[in-house]
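User: Can you recover a sequence for this backbone? Please restate the input before giving your answer.

Assistant: Of course. Working from this structure:
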């Protein structure tokens, strides 16, 4: 008995996937608003993350110079150990 080629099986699977039966389902307004709320929350999270890392990204790309206070990362630790602050 000859074997059927794999391509024939793939074609059959694709054709079966394209045939869709009606779902007979109902999505109420509460479900729609929950989906919309999830989308808006995801967009807000992306915007907040972009805002937090925007200056780092610009410095990484060389479009912005580092701030004067962040040139020496150990300076803050040295001031903290000596007991002085920026206001002193």
């Amino acid at each position: 008995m000859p074997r059927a080629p794999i391509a024939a099986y793939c074609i059959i699977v694709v054709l079966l996937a394209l045939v869709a039966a009606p779902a007979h389902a109902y999505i109420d307004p509460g479900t729609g608003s929950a989906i919309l709320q999830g989308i808006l929350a995801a967009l807000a999270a992306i915007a907040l993350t972009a805002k937090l890392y925007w200056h780092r990204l610009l410095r990484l790309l060389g479009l912005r110079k580092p701030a004067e206070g962040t040139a020496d990362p150990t300076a803050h630790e040295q001031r903290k150990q000596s007991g002085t602050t920026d206001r002193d």
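That completes the design. The two ends are 92 Å apart (CA to CA).
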